[in-house]
Amino acid sequence: MAIEGMDRETNERLDKVIQMRRSIRSFTEEVPPRQQIEQVIEAGLLAPYAAAALEGVKLFRRFFVFERGGESIEKVAELAVEHMKAVAAGFKQQCETDPAFAEKAGPFVKRMEIVVSSGKLPITEAPYFIVIAERAGFPPAEKQSLAHVLENMWLKATALGLGFRLISLIANLAHNEDFCKLIGVIPGEFAFDGCSIGYATEWPPPTPRPSFDEAVTWFASSP
Ligand SMILES: Cc1cc2nc3c(=O)[nH]c(=O)nc-3n(C[C@H](O)[C@H](O)[C@H](O)COP(=O)(O)O)c2cc1C
């Protein structure tokens, strides 16, 4: 059965949104209307969730919106830097005693150290920073659910002409007592992901992908 309203035009527009989606890492000063941010959140709410892992849980998804320049967003950035500092120090120590780990993690750890020493995380740069929280269930599927939420939000932001950046480091604060207290959840009860939204200073070209033929293996029903 065809779905009503799913015509060629809808299909072509969806393709266009998917093709135009980009990671935006530089934002203008202009603040998008709050109503558009609400629409982006609505798209995130519509993403699938792991129903079987969350039986009886009604409020399995929450959104915390931080506005640029506010006290709360500065506090989040401060906590995230603090946390990253501790993680980077642990990784560095491990690199010194474990050559195999150093080879694998070295470049990432160096990048972390540069960010930590600058004391500047991308959290405060866009007009809006949103933390998305998905309730941890059994079996754990909350991280996968978050990826669906973020992709829905990303595509909706793109369709609205808004720039979007994933801020995945916020996931590390799932057990951070100060951060969880700030947003009013119990440490460990939710998994987090985050994103920044605003107007892009420029829309970058597409990033490389494997070719269709390289990436796809098709097991046909007949030879
Ligand atoms: C799981 C995951 C985490 C990511 N985390 C970040 C992030 O914290 N900051 C960031 O700027 N981009 C992040 N990205 C975006 C990727 O770097 C980006 O998607 C990739 O470079 C391709 O570029 P495009 O999004 O413009 O197609 C993340 C992407 C994925 C899939």
The helix/strand class is: alpha+beta
Shape: globular
Q: Mean pLDDT, nearest integer?
A: 96
What is the H level of CATH, i.e. the homologous superfamily of the largest domain?
Answer: NADH Oxidase
Order of helices and strands: HHEHHEHEHEH
Q: How many separate domains make up the residues?
A: 2
| Count of alpha/pi helices | 7
Report how far the terminal alpha carbons are from each other. 29 Å
* Residue share in helix: 40-55%
* CATH architecture title of the largest domain: 3-Layer(aba) Sandwich
Described by strand count, sense and barrel closure, the largest sheet is: 4 strands, antiparallel
Rg of Cα set: 20 Å
**Which stretches are poorly predicted, pLDDT < 50 over at least 5 residues?**
none
What is the highest CATH level, the class of the largest domain? Answer: Alpha Beta
* Total E-strand runs: 4
Examine the coordinates and then state which fold CATH places here, giving the name of the CATH topology of the largest domain.
Answer: NADH Oxidase
Give an overview in words.
By secondary structure, this protein is of the alpha+beta class. It folds into two domains: 27-49 and 58-76 and 121-198, NADH Oxidase (3-Layer(aba) Sandwich); 78-118. It is 45% helix and 13% strand. The protein has seven helices and four strands, in the order H-H-E-H-H-E-H-E-H-E-H. The chain has helices at 8-20, 34-45, 71-97, 99-118, 142-159, 177-183, 212-215; strands at 61-67, 128-135, 163-166, 190-198. A four-stranded antiparallel β-sheet has the order 1-2-4-3, with helices on one face. The longest helix has 27 residues, at 71-97. It is globular, with a radius of gyration of 20 Å. The mean pLDDT is 96. Flavin mononucleotide (FMN) binds next to strand 3.
